Amino acid sequence: AQKVTQAQTEISVVEKEDVTLDCVYETRDTTYYLFWYKQPPSGELVFLIRRNSFDEQNEISGRYSWNFQKSTSSFNFTITASQVVDSAVYFCALSEPGGGFKTIFGAGTRLFVKA
Amino acid sequence: DAGVIQSPRHEVTEMGQEVTLRCKPISGHNSLFWYRQTMMRGLELLIYFNNNVPIDDSGMPEDRFSAKMPNASFSTLKIQPSEPRDSAVYFCASSPAEGGIYEQYFGPGTRLTVT
Fold first, then answer.
1. Of residues B43, B55, B108, nearest to A44 (C-beta)
2. B104 at the A interface (CB within 8 A)?
3. Inter-chain touch A102–B48, beta carbons under 8 Å
4. Taking a C-beta distance cutoff of 8 angstroms, is the pair B48, B33 a contact?
5. Which of A40, A50, A63, B84 has the smallest set of CB atoms within 10 Å of its CB?
6. pLDDT band at A102 (very low <50, low <70, confident <90, very high)
C-alpha cells in the first residue's frame, strides 16, 4: 500500500535561513511518481515539482531544490535563503499504478518564515 | 489561460439541505479530481474521472455524496442531505493526463459550512 509520511508538522525559521522539508514514502511498485505542492495562506494548492521513479537526478529551481533518494525512499525539499513569502503548508504526494494512480498526499508541513 | 474554476467559493447551509459544488477544469485536461480538506483528515481524494468517466470513487464517504461529469468542461459534487461533519474545503483539480501520473492543477476551493 502506498503511504507518504511528512514527520515535521510545523517548522519555524528566520528569514534567510535554509530549511529542509522531509518526505518519506512507501510503495511496492517500481514505477511511481512523486510530487510537491505548496498551499499558501490563500488556500489554493500550487504544483511545484514532479519526479518519476526512474529519474533520481536532483533538481534545483532558483532557491528550491529537491533530493530524491530511492535507497531511503525519501524525496526531500530544501528552500535556500528562505523568505516570508515561502510561509505555507507544503505537501508531498505519491502516485503509483498499484494504487490505480490515485494520488496520496502526506499530512503536510507548515512552514513559518519570520522576518 | 483560465485555471480550474470552482463555484461557489463559500457555501453556508443548514443540516439536511442539498449542496451542489461546481467545477470547470482546464480546457484540454483529461482527468478531474475532487478532494476534501479538513484539519482532522488532511487532504482526501473523493473521486476522480478520466475522460468524463468515474474511475475510482472509493473515497466518497457515503451515499449522501455523488459526483457527475456530464462533459469535459463541467463536473458537480452533490451532498444530499448535508450534515455538519461535511464542513470542509472541497477542491477540484484537473490534470493533462489520465490518473495521477502528471501534476494536478487545483481550483481555489469551496469552503462549505453546514450548521
1. B108
2. yes
3. yes
4. yes
5. B84
6. confident
